Amino acid sequence: MRFPFTGVIPVEKPIGVTSRRVVDVVGRALSMRAVGHAGTLDPLASGVVVVCVGSATKLVDYIHQLPKHYTALFLLGRSSPSDDCETPIEEEANPVRPTSEAIESAADAFRGEFLQRPCDYSAVHIDGKRAYRLARAGHTFEAESKRVCIHRLEITGYQWPHLSMELVCSAGTYVRAIGRDLAESLGTRAVMQSLARSAVGRFTRGIPLDAIDSTTAASHLLPALAAVEHLPVVSLDADTLGLAVRGGLISLPHAAADAIAAVDSTSLLVGILKRHESGEFRLRPNFLGE
Fold first, then answer.
1. 278 and 168 in one domain?
2. Which residue among 46, 73, 113, 145 is buried most deeply as judged by most CB within 10 Å?
3. Of 42, 83, 120, 181, which one is the catalytic site residue?
């Protein structure tokens, strides 16, 4: 299937708007249904949401591989079921007030790779149902911990009860849970007051949501190749491209990666070459063979 538009649009999502709403706005502006986002941003958070259009919707998993940059503000000495300000907040009667030195020392445990328990109010699946739906219905459950990676975590400010930080993390990381677990390690509690996502990989600036219309959406559309710039790239000649589009296996004897962005002679992304069990590569997804 050929789409009138294919590519990615970084959008600046305001507070109070869902990521689904961002997708709907872009879809209506371009009169397209093949639109999706590469990473949910909670309604209470603001910042960059990468919207994929047309064939680029098949690249969502690759955008998920990109690190995400956040600025977060927490309130210590408080807790809530959702670990943020969405649900009722309970203040501790006699909270521990950690020193700046204690906070910085405790933060070391949250740098690098570790197992993180997702927030109860999250989109993870528990027996086929979203955790936040179960939590809102009053069900008790234990979400399975997931391995996450914090590439950088910097405490940028602390004056009780306010604690601010900047971090760069892998997909699937719950920033709310970072504050929750950091506070617990210090003998207190925390809720996230605000969160802003400043970047997803190279996507550091988005078009404001309220500025999106048919003209601005089209003009801000980046080529699909922008979504996979972190992958190695190979240019296929006409014969090799024809074989790949027909589903044939491609030999790339010097390739070390298991996924390679394939472009034609004009540098247009035609799909992703994935390593087959034979060691050769097959075009999946195949933009030209759709």
1. no
2. 46
3. 42
Cβ of 141: how many Cβ atoms within 10 Å?
A: 11
| CA distance readout (Å), 60 to 6, 14, 115, 138, 173 | 13, 22, 24, 33, 17
> How many domains would you assign to the chain?
3
Whether 42 sits among the annotated catalytic residues: the reply is yes
Q: Report if residue 2 sits inside a domain.
A: no
CATH of the domain at 42: 3.30.2350.10
Residue 189 CA from chain centroid, whole number: 26
3-state helix, strand, coil in the chain (%, to 5): 25, 35, 40
Cα–Cα distance between 119 and 149 in angstroms, integer? 16
Predicted structure pTM score:
0.91
Residue 219's contacts (CB-CB under 8 Å, 6 or more residues apart) are: none
**Which backbone phi and psi does 69 adopt, to 5 degrees?**
-105, 130
pLDDT, one tens digit for every residue, the chain (290 residues): 668 899 999 999 999 999 999 999 999 999 999 999 998 898 899 999 999 999 999 999 999 999 999 999 999 999 999 999 999 999 999 999 999 999 999 999 999 999 999 888 777 777 777 877 877 877 777 788 999 999 999 999 999 999 999 999 999 899 999 999 999 999 999 999 999 999 999 999 899 999 999 999 999 999 999 999 999 999 999 999 999 999 999 999 989 999 999 999 999 999 999 999 999 999 999 998 76
Residue 115 lies in a domain: yes
Contact of 164 with 71, CB cutoff 8 Å: yes
Q: Are residues 181 and 88 in the same domain?
A: yes
